[in-house]
Amino acid sequence: MSAARPRHSPRVRSALDRVLIHDIKNMEFRLQMLLSNLEENYDDPDFKRSVRELLASTISRLESIVGRWEAHQEAVLVKVSLDINEVIRTVCSAATSGSGRLRRSAAARLPELALSLGEPPEIWGDPYFLSDAFASLLDNALEAAGPGGKVLLRSFASRRRGGRSRAVIDVIDNGCGMSAEFLRERLFRPFETTKEGGVGLGLLTAAQIMKLHGGTLRVHSQPGGGTIVRASFPPARPAE
After folding, report:
1. How far apart are CA 161 and CA 177, in angstroms?
2. Which of 9, 159, 193, 205 meets the CB 3.0–4.6 Å disulfide criterion with 18?
3. At what angle do helices 202-212 and 10-41 cross, to 10 degrees?
4. How far apart are the C-alpha atoms of 240 and 223, rounded to whole Å?
5. Rounded CA separation 95/114 (Å)
6. φ, ψ (nearest 5 deg) of residue 127
């Protein structure tokens, strides 16, 4: 499997900074949730098992962040020919296991999560950064849908006349949606968020990561009508 390493640039470093901040905030949230449930569920064997899994995954994530930080001066994406469906499956599996059980104990239950994966073309992508981006989009959708809601992730090939098919991934929730004013004026600005305790970096970071992969991120939403977040990527080109 071949890899392409682009030269580093200020905007790649900026995206790295946001990924690191977002990762740290996510870990903070998970550890805070653990502490808030510790006393009530301390004697529950399932809870203890979830705690062990959460702490192990947090340590692994910290090691990954440290590695990225140490290599920060290089600031490169490591792109390989990538099956985006595998990235989506991995992200969904992580969202519904380990810390997911802690989430269910605190908020009744997760929304229903469904996959509808088609046959998108392979793309040139860095699996670390794309996993982070889609994990952010999925977290947003799960929080927007809330207990009893529904979230769908689907992938397909978008075929264009005279052009190559693009890989398209939709993250769809049936939550409360967003106003046209919020979409137009505030959605992709840092520190603008509708989530209590959020920092508003998840969607912005995801959009930057898509852009660094030659992709796009578009959001369709309306109050009371849910939200569709659509990522689109050009296909991988044969190695020269």
Report:
1. 33
2. 205
3. 140
4. 48
5. 12
6. -60, -30
